[in-house]
Amino acid sequence: MAVLEYEGQKYQKRKSARVEDVLTIEEVLQITINNFPFTVTMRSPGNDNALIRGLLFSEDVLRDQTIDLPIQYRKKNAITTIANVSLDKKLLGAGIKSTRSLLSVSSCGICGRQELDTTSTFKNCLTKNAKLSIDRLYQSFETMSRLQNDFLRSGGSHAAAAISETGELLSLMEDIGRHNAVDKVIGDLINKKKLDKATGILVSGRISYEIVSKVFCAQIPILAAVSAPSSLAVEYAKQFGLTLLGFCREERATCYANDWRIVG
What we know:
264 residues, alpha/beta, 24% helix
């Protein structure tokens, strides 16, 4: 589990007490490609292979799912890990030109990018006809909530999960960053050769433009969140054929785009 115990002084009304709290670990992952710096992201350690695979896929750096991803890790210091990916230059996609020059913080994966280039990301409208019953969606959120072990201990991590059309849980990942959790799930699906089986992605927080972008790149037709989507997320979902739902909790949900995939 990516959590640690920390001591704190808790204040409640006019009383105070020394407590032990479980907090989510946040550490630095520096990704290089052929020893050339690509990005630095803050993430919860664990499942780094899946995170890197999903990130390179969603950033249009490596879309070929059949390629084995050779990754070498080394510790730079106590909180920084360097991961070098060795790839033939002929395999690199257009996303390699959008190298992030600033720190990509855990709450917003797009903050460090030099340019916002949608032309290389959104090439074809998502027309996949898979549908999902609203009851299965409710049940899937209950399952994800129950299995968020890091969150249940620390209250400080996000989760993403992939489900099939029948509601089967294909992957569940946690991370301190919402976009990291999504990248980990996509990478895990690629590694398991189950990306084509995924009908929906569930996220525990809000939905931003970047999460819509990642899910669209993976050609997963339904994206649903516990919290709200942003206006830009809704606009992109409408334009590119993605079914987008927010406020999915307590057997409630609001669909903001392409509701024809939701039945029941």
